[in-house]
């Protein structure tokens, strides 16, 4: 970053059309800043711009009533022309309000002409310079990736907008490449995060070396990079750029003594004069990159018309899903759960359904993944939680003696949202349901991920009294250590193992192991997918506490549950 001239020999420009005021301020500056300070005066904004173009100005003192600009406009014009320049506004006593607003719109400080002395003026200049420097540094941080120093997604999109606007005028093409390292996670896991970070930094440097003038390389996070090729004539140029990037990364990296080889999956999307916004272009390149991964990695894929049609279709489903949520086509069904010790109904698991107007009843497998990808799961998840809690409030009211509990499935994405814990609290409060009547189910993979934010959220929820169940247990290879650190209360044995009971002796061994583990950690065990009486008997004998499955009941609509309670 260029830092501007040092404050020790400052060059201050006074922009003031009243000669008496100008002379007065000049005098104060000379007194306050010493003899090596250079002070120049101009009387219009136009002359100010001309002066700044020729001299290394440290700071501008700007009067708010100039012949060619007035009030805030003067600040805005100067700031637009010279975004790096610190500005101190000079104002008359009668318009301190305007001066304040000037600071809000980008000046660094203001001085009241009638109340200024050499100390105040000097302090204001020094302060403005420091403040501007801090401002620029913050801006740089906000637009760059801290690990590699490369532009981040926001800055990349900004530059892409500019490049697209230029392409519209010149008729040239713009290409976006999404470059993703293959199997980077394995390297990260085996060599450690620090080594992973070093590798990412080295990759960033190699990609930056490949840049042509006018191009940009950015880091989108993790091991994902984006390149903007600002003047490509067609597909061939873009492919050449992708091949250059891939070749640059293919040469071995040295991490200490270890030689590391990387391959890349690259998605390419071309924008031209008529087509596409920056965001759409990045999305297309990203889709092409995922296609490259699917096709076996270490290759590049061009976003083409076939993919465009597939993307459109997805967009249609996505829109339909949006509408479904608004039109209450999304419904909850509830599957009863029973105690294996006394056969009592203990509660329900809420399972979501889509009552599709043409395709009939759809299970979660057909729309939850899309909802997760698009972020719609957040709104949907909030609705699901609310509706589930609303129902359990009613059913607990009807059968107070049962102490019924509601289990709700969560997606990882819901947990990453700040305020999730508050949402849970507010939902329970809204319906007057105690926290002990709610169980939140998460898949074992979330435990494996050992994400600190998730863990904290769960600790908070659990302190509050909500219980946490680890779903599909046994499929995700959670380590004992991870499980011990994780604030779980319940393990749900995956139904695949229950299914095999009686036919596959390994499954009985697995269920036994899960129960033993749960006992050691003080957790309850729920067996899901119990379809036959012999399976029920076995899970009961092995020590599971609660069971659910088609043997007892499938997931039922709310009125069927109401019937069941009566
Ligand atoms: P899960 O949490 O493991 O849910 C249990 C699944 O097993 C349900 O399928 C249920 O209908 C089915 N099931 C219950 N008893 C039996 C049985 O005896 N035999 C067999 N073969 N299957 C049985 P469903 O409703 O299709 O849900 C599938 C998955 O979708 C759920 O798996 C859960 O991971 C996810 N899901 C369901 N509702 C929600 C939700 O509201 N939010 C989120 N994020 N995910 C949900
Ligand atoms: Ca579940
Ligand atoms: Ca499950």
Would you write up a description of this structure?
This protein has 566 residues and is α/β, with parallel strands linked by helices. It folds into three domains: 11-142, Response regulator (Rossmann fold, 3-Layer(aba) Sandwich); 153-303, Alpha-Beta Plaits, CATH 3.30.70.270; 321-565, Alpha-Beta Barrel (TIM Barrel). The chain has 22 helices and 23 strands. Strands 15-16-18-19-20-21-22-23 form an eight-stranded mixed β-barrel, surrounded by four helices. Strands 2-1-3-6-7 form a five-stranded parallel sheet, with helices on both faces. The chain binds ligand C2E and calcium ion (CA) (2 copies). The site of one calcium ion has 4 residues, from loops.
Keywords for this entry:
Alpha-Beta Plaits; TIM Barrel; 8-stranded mixed β-barrel; elongated
Q: Which regions have little confidence, pLDDT < 50, spanning 5+ residues?
A: 1-7
The overall number of domains is: 3
Q: Main sheet: which strands, in order across?
A: 15-16-18-19-20-21-22-23
- Look up the CATH topology of the largest domain: TIM Barrel
The helix/strand class is: alpha/beta
Largest sheet: 8 strands, mixed, barrel
- CATH architectural group of the largest domain: Alpha-Beta Barrel
Number of helices: 22
Helix content: 40-55%
Quick one: how many beta strands? 23
Ligand list: ligand C2E, calcium ion
CATH class of the largest domain: Alpha Beta
Strand residue percentage: 15-25%
Backbone shape: elongated
Rg? 32 Å
Distance between the termini: 73 Å
* Overall mean pLDDT: 90
CATH superfamily of the largest domain: EAL domain
């Amino acid at each position: 970053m260029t830092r501007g001239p040092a404050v020790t020999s400052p060059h201050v420009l006074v922009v003031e059309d009243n000669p008496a005021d100008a002379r007065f301020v000049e005098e104060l500056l000379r007194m306050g800043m010493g003899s090596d300070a250079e002070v120049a005066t101009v009387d219009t904004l136009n002359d100010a711009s001309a002066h700044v173009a020729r001299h290394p100005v440290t700071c501008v003192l700007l009067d708010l009533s100039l012949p060619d600009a007035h009030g805030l406009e003067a600040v805005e014009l100067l700031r637009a022309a010279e975004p790096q320049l610190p500005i101190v506004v000079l104002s008359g006593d009668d318009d301190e309000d305007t001066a304040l607003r000037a600071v809000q719109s980008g000046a660094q400080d203001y001085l009241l002409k009638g109340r200024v002395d050499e100390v105040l003026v000097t302090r204001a200049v020094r302060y403005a310079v420091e403040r501007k420097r801090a401002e620029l540094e913050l801006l740089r941080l906000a637009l760059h990736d801290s690990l590699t120093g490369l532009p981040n997604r926001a800055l990349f999109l900004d530059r892409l907008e500019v490049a697209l606007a230029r392409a519209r005028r010149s008729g040239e093409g713009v290409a976006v490449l999404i470059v993703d390292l293959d199997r980077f996670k394995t390297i990260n896991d085996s060599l450690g995060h620090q080594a992973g970070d070093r590798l990412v930094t080295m990759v960033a440097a190699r990609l930056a070396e490949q840049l042509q003038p006018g191009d940009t390389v950015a880091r989108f996070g993790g091991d994902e990079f984006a390149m903007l090729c600002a003047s490509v004539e067609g597909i061939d140029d873009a492919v050449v750029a992708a091949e250059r990037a891939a070749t640059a990364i293919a040469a071995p990296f040295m991490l200490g003594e270890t030689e590391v080889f990387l391959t890349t999956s690259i998605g390419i999307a071309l924008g031209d004069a008529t087509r596409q916004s920056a965001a759409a272009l990045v999305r297309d390149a990203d889709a092409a990159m995922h296609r490259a991964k699917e096709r076996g990695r270490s290759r590049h894929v061009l976003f083409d018309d076939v993919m465009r049609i597939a993307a459109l279709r997805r967009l249609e489903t996505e829109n339909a899903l949006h509408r479904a949520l608004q039109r209450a086509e999304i419904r909850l069904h509830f599957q009863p759960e029973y105690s294996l010790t006394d056969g009592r109904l203990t509660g329900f698991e809420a399972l979501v359904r889509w009552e599709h107007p043409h395709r009939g009843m759809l299970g979660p497998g057909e729309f939850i993944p899309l909802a997760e990808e698009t972020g719609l799961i957040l709104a949907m998840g909030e609705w699901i939680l609310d509706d589930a809690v609303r129902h359990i409030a009613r059913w607990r009211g009807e059968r107070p003696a049962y102490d019924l509990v509601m289990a709700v499935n969560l997606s990882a994405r819901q947990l990453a949202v700040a305020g999730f814990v508050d949402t849970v609290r507010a939902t329970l409060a809204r319906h007057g349901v105690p926290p002990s009547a709610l169980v939140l189910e998460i898949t074992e993979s979330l435990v494996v991920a050992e994400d600190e934010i998730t863990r904290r959220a769960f600790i908070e929820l659990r302190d509050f009294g909500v219980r946490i169940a680890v779903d599909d247990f046994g499929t995700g290879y959670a380590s004992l250590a991870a499980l011990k650190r994780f604030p779980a209360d319940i393990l749900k044995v995956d139904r695949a193992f229950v299914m095999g009971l009686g036919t596959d002796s390994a499954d009985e061994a697995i269920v036994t192991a899960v129960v033993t583990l749960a006992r050691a950690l003080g957790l309850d065990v729920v067996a899901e997918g119990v379809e036959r009486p012999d399976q029920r008997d076995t899970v009961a004998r092995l020590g599971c506490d609660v069971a659910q499955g088609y043997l007892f009941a499938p997931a039922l609509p709310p009125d069927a549950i109401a019937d069941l309670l009566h």
